[in-house]
Design brief:
This protein is an alpha+beta fold. It contains 3 helices and 6 strands; from the N terminus they run E-H-H-E-E-E-E-E-H. 22% of the residues lie in helices and 41% in strands.
Length: 128
């Protein structure tokens, strides 16, 4: 079973659009925030080895609007692995019944020295 990681997101007034809810583009910032925290907490050695993970694809299905005082949590997990890529799936929610959005990013492991994709490190595979 895949390991699940969750983190709270602090909303800012500047996240809102003219309609008073979080702008759709900001959702991708929330996904990035959760992904960066995940890598900081669990995969420090990957970046220490000069391995970057870059977003090759990002998609989001918006379910219900987020407003300024809503509680927002991003939960993510490793959904699929390939040779040099992996998919993360996300649920943006309130910690209870509300799901604001679901999303997926395809990440590619990239050798920052040679400028080429590289095989997945074992630590990432172990998260599946």
């Amino acid at each position: 079973m895949a390991q699940i990681y969750s983190t709270s997101i602090e909303l800012r007034f500047s996240d809102l659009d003219a309609y008073g809810h979080v702008n759709s583009a900001v959702y991708f910032t929330y996904l990035e925030t959760a992904r960066v925290k995940l890598f900081h907490d669990f995969f420090k050695e990957v970046t220490a080895q000069g391995i970057f993970t870059v977003v090759a694809r990002a998609e989001c299905d918006f379910k219900i609007p987020i407003t300024l005082y809503d509680e927002v949590i991003v939960t993510l997990w490793l959904a699929k692995t390939g040779r040099s890529s992996f998919d993360l799936e996300y649920r943006v929610h309130d910690g209870h019944e509300k799901t604001y959005a679901t999303a997926r990013t395809t990440m590619v492991c990239f050798d920052s020295i040679k400028n080429v994709p590289m095989p997945l490190p074992e630590s990432i595979k172990a998260m599946a």
